[in-house]
Write a structure and sequence with these properties.
The chain has 80 residues and is of the alpha/beta class. It is 34% helix and 25% strand. The radius of gyration is 13 Å and the shape is globular.
């Protein structure tokens, strides 16, 4: 796990210093379920248990974030 987190830190640093508009999205456990259309997103979220979110809802958020200035240069934690 140490190598995974080291690579994650390096890639995040490269993204943040790229000079581009970016949004880092951190979903909880991904499921194959259908989109619910309602989810929680924030730079930090309180979580209990084993939170999850469908890939479809993450895709919905990412599409919306890409077309809005709200999450430019932001970290988005997302769960349902």
């Amino acid at each position: 796990m140490r190598n995974i987190y080291a690579n994650k830190e390096l890639s995040e640093r490269a993204i943040r210093s790229s000079g581009l508009d970016w949004t880092l999205v951190y979903p909880t456990v991904l499921t194959k379920g259908p989109a619910k259309g309602a989810y929680l997103v924030g730079d930090r979220l309180p979580m209990k248990g084993n939170p999850s979110i469908s890939r479809a809802d993450v895709a919905d958020f990412m599409y919306k974030a890409a077309h809005s200035p709200e999450w430019i240069h932001g970290d988005a934690v997302i769960t349902d």
